[in-house]
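Minutes, structural biology subgroup

Action item carried over from last meeting: produce the structure token record for RagB/SusD family nutrient uptake outer membrane protein (Antarcticibacterium flavum). EB confirmed the sequence was re-checked against the source entry. Recorded below for completeness.
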Amino acid sequence: MKRTFKYLLLFVLSIGTLTSCSEEDLEPTLAQSKSIETSINSLNDLEALLIGAMERMSTTAYYNRDVIILGEVFSDNATSNANSNRFVVEAQMDLNAQSAIASSLWSQIYGVIASANIIIGAEGIEGDEARINHIKGQAYAIRALAHFDLVKFYGQQHVNNGGLSASGVPYVTAFRDNDNLFPSRNTVQEVKDLAYADLERAQDLMSESLNDVSKEFITTYAAYAIEARIANYFGDHPRALNAAETVINSGNYTIASEGEFLSNFRSRGSANSIFEIANTPTDNAGINGLANIYQVGSYGDVVALPNLAAIYDEGDVRGVSPYDPTAGVQPSTVIGVSENGTLRNVGKYPRTAPFEDNVPVIRYEEIVLIYAEALMETGGADALTWLNRIPENRGGDTYDAATFENILLERRKELAFEGFRFHDLARAGMDIQSVDVIQLHNGVDYGAYNFALPIPTSEVDVNANIDQNTGY
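Output recorded by EB:
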């Protein structure tokens, strides 16, 4: 099953109907008048639903832009220059309950969860049982990742030292549950535990022999990588260690070398990719793509802060080099600096016309750094060796010790512009520093109300069981 044969799946949640259409034939392939329960009969139907879930993950409201940009402009990595007035309020960390991005992110992720729940709840499917289980396993993993993304942004765990007992998000486990149409918020602890349970179920159902080689679908090892990410965020280091080790011991992935690093962001299914969002010229996000929000042009609102550029060693491929697209000067590093001193991400998600670079969701380098952190936190040997494997392949200086500070620094260097920095600061209990005059906020102390997004007014107004987040 390849993403080049795509389906647009529209789930009309209010009436519970399903429409499916391909690029070649826009007529419904599943009768629109049928209910969800009676429309899904075959393995092909289930595969189409899975593609639909992936399509929902690939919108600009989720992994194709907003979830990544928010993780950067909420931090000390990047800000908005207001070139087209995009991400200005976000970079000020001054959202409110009516903010469009808070609403679109919430609804888009819950749309992904709805797609996953339809797959999980489908019964009586005709076809190969192992393949059916493999698809259902992917749906469980998607559901876990989506709820984790929600709780990172909307949970109260980092507000007023809320911790795991604080309000998280509703963990929705059924599509159109008539007994629970207005779910209340689970605690952060409950969200974490339910995500772990979904991943365990995914790992049980999936078969390594059925893993898609394109990296554009969840594989058995992607499910373990998601588990490692969640465990790392919550400080469950033994669990992070075991999950990361499973991915590493598979032998399926390698760290990109210094010479491969930039080109891998133009490639599909690279050896360092574990799971990525597919983009083709047909999908082209155009002006809404990541490249157009990062790079110089009519948009280009999100620029790197000098504080980020300063952390790189000379010769590090992730660092800074001259950039002048009008003169045909392209940087040899991730960050390009123009003559006026503006710093831009040019190396990650580089193509603008059309925007067709796959967006990495999980790279092997992240898992290596999770493994190094877990080794360090559990007293295991070789934490320093694993930490240094990243700068050794980037032209950067290596470290003398495996400390949390050094691991956090290397994560900042390696994962810049990919949406990790805000969540790393939050899980570390660190303030968001004001580091430059062009930064649009004046620093945010850890525990402040805006360490969480507002619950959208549209949700709070219709669901009396949802309480608004502190400060909104």
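Discussion: The CA atoms of residues 5 and 24 lie 9 Å apart.
Next step: EB to file the record with the rest of the batch.
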